[in-house]
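// run 5 | inverse folding | seed 20
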C-alpha cells in the first residue's frame, strides 16, 4: 500500500524529468524580447537582456539587404549574408533566422560545415546547386545528395555535415531558414586545420591516415 500511495508522486517526478531532458530551446514567455547591447533600459528575460517593451518599435523587427548579392571573390567563391539576432534584434528568443547565400559560377562552394544549434531549410532562387549532407557514424555516414534547380527546396538536419556547390555556368543564389536565432557554424576544414592553436599534427596524421608533412601543409593553408 505504501508503494501504491507513492506511485502518483513518482509518476509526476518522472514526467517532469522527461520534459526537462527533452527540452531544447525554451519557448518565449512573452510576445517578444528585442535584444539590446545597452542594458541601461533593458529587462532581463529568458536569460537575455531585452529592450523594455514600451520602447520597442517596428524597426526592431525589420532588416533590409537580402536583395544585395554577397561578394564571392574569395578562395571558395561563396558569400553568406546572415540575418541573426545581431542583425535583427527582434529575432531574439524566437528560435529562427535567415541567410542569403551567393555562389560564384562554375564551382562556388559552401564548404562542408555543420550548424550545431539549428536545422537548415534551403530554397534555390537562381542557378543550379549540388547539395548534400552526411549522416552520423551510427547511421553509417551515408551521403544524401541532390541537384537543385530554381524553386527547389532541401533540408539539412541539425548538426549534420552538409555542403552546397554551384555546378552551373551562372551565379547561384539561395535563401535558407534556420531553426535558431544563433545556429552557429563549424566549417570542417577551418576547424581541423585552422584551429588556434593548431591541433597536434600527430592527431590529424593518425585520424586522416596521411603523411605528417601533408597535414602540416594543410595547416599552413588555413
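// decoded
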Amino acid at each position: 500500500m505504501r508503494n501504491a500511495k507513492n506511485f502518483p508522486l513518482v509518476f509526476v517526478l518522472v514526467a517532469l524529468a522527461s520534459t526537462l531532458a527533452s527540452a531544447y530551446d525554451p519557448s518565449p514567455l512573452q510576445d517578444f524580447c528585442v535584444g539590446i547591447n545597452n542594458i541601461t533600459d533593458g529587462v532581463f528575460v529568458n536569460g537575455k537582456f531585452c529592450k523594455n517593451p514600451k520602447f520597442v518599435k517596428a524597426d526592431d523587427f525589420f532588416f533590409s539587404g537580402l536583395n544585395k548579392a554577397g561578394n564571392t571573390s574569395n578562395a571558395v567563391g561563396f558569400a553568406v549574408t546572415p540575418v541573426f539576432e545581431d542583425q535583427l534584434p527582434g529575432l531574439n528568443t524566437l528560435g529562427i533566422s535567415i541567410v542569403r547565400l551567393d555562389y560564384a559560377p562554375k564551382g562556388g562552394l559552401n564548404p562542408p560545415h555543420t550548424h550545431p544549434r539549428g536545422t537548415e531549410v534551403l530554397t534555390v532562387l537562381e542557378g543550379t546547386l549540388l547539395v548534400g549532407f552526411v549522416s552520423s557514424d551510427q547511421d553509417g555516414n551515408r551521403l544524401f545528395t541532390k541537384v537543385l534547380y530554381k524553386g527547389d527546396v532541401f533540408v539539412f538536419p541539425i548538426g549534420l555535415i552538409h555542403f552546397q556547390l554551384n555546378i552551373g555556368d551562372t551565379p547561384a543564389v539561395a535563401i535558407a531558414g534556420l531553426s535558431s536565432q544563433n545556429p552557429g557554424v563549424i566549417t570542417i576544414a577551418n576547424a581541423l586545420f585552422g584551429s588556434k592553436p593548431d591541433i597536434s599534427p600527430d592527431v590529424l596524421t593518425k585520424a586522416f591516415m596521411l603523411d605528417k608533412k601533408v597535414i602540416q601543409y594543410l595547416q599552413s593553408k588555413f
